[in-house]
Amino acid sequence: MAKISKANITISDIAESAGVSKATVSRVLNSPELVDEKTREKIEKVIKENHYSPSATARNLSKQISSTIGVIVPEISNTFFGELFEGIEEITNKNNLSLLYCSNDDNKEKDFKALDMMRTQRVRGLIYIPAVNYKELGLLKQVQQRLDGLAGPVICVDRSIGLRCDEIYFNDRKAMYEAVKALAVDGHKRIAIINGSKQNVLAEERHNGYIDGLKESGIEVDESIIFRGDYKYSSAYSMTKQMIKLENQPTAVITCNNSISKGFLKAIYETGKSIPDAYMHIGLDKIEMLNLLGIPYNHIERDSYELGKRAVEILINRIAFPETKLQQVVLQAELELQTCRLVKM
Amino acid sequence: MAKISKANITISDIAESAGVSKATVSRVLNSPELVDEKTREKIEKVIKENHYSPSATARNLSKQISSTIGVIVPEISNTFFGELFEGIEEITNKNNLSLLYCSNDDNKEKDFKALDMMRTQRVRGLIYIPAVNYKELGLLKQVQQRLDGLAGPVICVDRSIGLRCDEIYFNDRKAMYEAVKALAVDGHKRIAIINGSKQNVLAEERHNGYIDGLKESGIEVDESIIFRGDYKYSSAYSMTKQMIKLENQPTAVITCNNSISKGFLKAIYETGKSIPDAYMHIGLDKIEMLNLLGIPYNHIERDSYELGKRAVEILINRIAFPETKLQQVVLQAELELQTCRLVKM
DNA sequence: CTGAAAGCGCTTACAG
DNA sequence: CTGAAAGCGCTTACAG
User: Fold this and answer.
1) In this structure, what DSSP letter does residue B326 have?
2) Do residues A289 and A213 share a domain?
3) A172-198 mean pLDDT
């Protein structure tokens, strides 16, 4: 039982060195209780001495199953997804699953490429945030086909686009509805919204919630203060600049994601205006920096860390029980109206 | 050549359906130029019709080499690492490499577990940010042994702790030196520093740069305004509160990472003070929110996106040319003294 | 409790 | 240009 002098030690080397068969070594690795204590100890010693660690590749091939979970996310540098991803990692790590990462940059081509990779890698399950609203584009079938071709189940996160798989997302429509109502109760009659494009499912959800809220509050819809661009900082920035020039000004503004909120604030700030003096404001998602600095910031809070954790749990459950009915989990976003005073700049 | 009706289509199914051998199918997958055009077209048709995609697991085992790169990062929700990770993903994606992700939470145990996983997964190469300063802990050999046991080369990123592998990091010492000098030139003689712990390599680097700067400027070192906690928000917050109570106040403060800067600003803000009226301030790393809002913020800028891209490039190069000499790449951090005016809160 | 053998889905050196 | 065969490093049903 001298040290094995080889670069890549395999199960055969261990078996030989311990004077047993590969099968027995494999058993101490997988079901040690089946192996006689003395043989087991001997084998374990050889394994330890040689720092042997079995190849996941070989095991996966043999078992016809992999131990890695795939995750496809738009972009990790947006805090919402960063925290989502951390939640995911916490649970996969606890369950000794590896994590294969791919970003799709909200881009259809990259998304397809990512899906193909997950396929080829035979991931055990996939956590999937679709890049775009494929339903709108008439590409839903193509995507569904790709999901069906995967080796494991899929959970679709954050964006519900009608895919046949488990889903988990926030109730953005309701949250928006409540935001509008809160503003209306506060006396606001002209409530602007800066939102993403009509192709985006979430933007539509949020738009509908906004309309719900107006109707419920008896406020007429005014297209001139409904702004739709994309979910990027720069688009929100220029729409805000436009808004500021409007004859008939809104008194309150709702911004539909983090980047939009930032673009909005930047434009306001640059113009020498301040919140809430110029407009009452409610943003979607917290902005960490404001929170850390203790600056009150009205927003809809969505716990994306929790979202990530729950998503993995559902996926693991689905892997264990493939036949149970598909589920849609809806998480509640919470309206956080702090002091109704934003940073005074 | 009817559609194959099976759940998991393999190369044998394709071969059979196309009336050729597995070897030939494999060739059209790997080196199509070796295959006769007509046979190739026939095979390609069958592949497409059946949406066949070869198993990376089987291929990896057969080729004795994997197509995934591992990455071990402290935490993705810190913007510095989030952007680093995006840089990494961009390059791996371009090179059709998959990315196996693990976080270590700046925690030794998780770090070891992550390394073991990378071993077992036989990653082609590893991008590694060590959780802690193992040299200090006398565990360098253990870590080195783990790195040596990996299937591929390693690039150590952001923290140089004396590991035998390629390295890339920022010249923090020089950046700190320059920050101190800039403040001294501006007339400051009492320059405080809020820094991470002595166990942390980077904290030591930064500390040394600070001392260099003082010496060069003929300023005596004053221990009472050198604060060392950890790199967390809360620690910086309480140290700042302490600092504010000091008899002999500093006139300028340097904070040694993002979280520390935030804790510092929060404490300053809460006390009703403002920057730069109370203290001139230089932080390490940008703070996105301040930047977006157009609020001037003196800081040392480190492009972590670039760091990530370069790291992968070096790793890919090392994989291609294993025998070339190990390299240490030092990136320059840049002092950005905007208007020397920070947010007025 | 243990071993020999077949098999997982590929690749590739070899022969033709 | 193509195929048969061996091999990659495991697991597991089967026999003993």
Assistant:
1) P
2) yes
3) 93
Residue of B nearest to A83 (CA): B77
Q: Which CATH number goes with the domain that contains A18?
A: 1.10.260
Kindly list the distances between the CA atom of residue A249 and the CA atoms of A191, A236, B41, B178, in Å, as whole numbers in the listed order. Answer: 9, 17, 64, 48
**B273 min Cα distance to partner chain A (Å):** 13
Question: How many A/B residue pairs have CB atoms within 8 Å?
Answer: 139
Buried b or exposed e, range A243-269, using 16+ CB within 10 angstroms: beeeeeebbbbbbbbbbbbbbbbbbbb
**CATH number of the CATH domain containing B314:** 3.40.50.2300
Residues of B in contact with A289 (CB under 8 A): 262, 287-290
pLDDT digits (tens, 9 = 90+) for A278-326: 899 999 999 888 877 777 889 999 999 999 999 999 999 999 999 999 9
The answer to whether strand D lies under 7 Å from the CB of residue A273 is no
Could you tell me how far CA B237 lies from the centroid of its own chain?
25
pLDDT of residue A291: 76
**H-only helix segments in chain B:** 11-18, 22-30, 37-49, 56-63, 79-94, 108-120, 134-137, 140-148, 172-185, 201-216, 233-245, 258-270, 288-292, 304-320
Tokens 């950890």 correspond to B230
Which residues have a Cβ under 8 Å from the Cβ of A187 and sit 6 or more positions away?
none
Is residue B104 helix, strand or coil?
Answer: coil
How confident is the model at residue A2, as a pLDDT?
A: 59
pLDDT score recorded for residue B2: 59
- Say whether A198 sits in a helix, a strand or coil: coil
Q: How many domains does chain A have?
A: 3
With respect to residue A312, please indicate whether it lies within any of the assigned structural domains: yes
Q: Rounded to the nearest 5 degrees, what angle is found at the Cα of A66, between the Cα atoms of A63 and A70? A: 170
Residues in A closer than 8 angstroms to B293, CB to CB, are: 262, 265-266, 269, 345
Contact B130, B199 (CB under 8 A): no
Residue at token pair 């071969």: B15
How many whole angstroms separate alpha carbon B74 and alpha carbon B77?
Answer: 9
Is the alpha carbon torsion for B151, B152, B156, B162 positive or negative?
positive
What pLDDT, in 10s, does the model give residues A209-232? 999 999 999 999 999 999 999 888
- Strand D contact with A30 (CB < 7 A): yes
Q: pLDDT tens-digit profile of A23-64?
A: 999 999 999 999 999 999 999 999 999 999 999 999 999 999
Rounded percentage of chain A residues whose pLDDT exceeds 90: 77
Shared domain check, B40 and B150: no
Owning domain of residue B131: 66-170+304-333
Mean pLDDT across chain A, nearest whole number? 91
Q: Is B93 close to A82, i.e. CB distance below 8 A? A: no
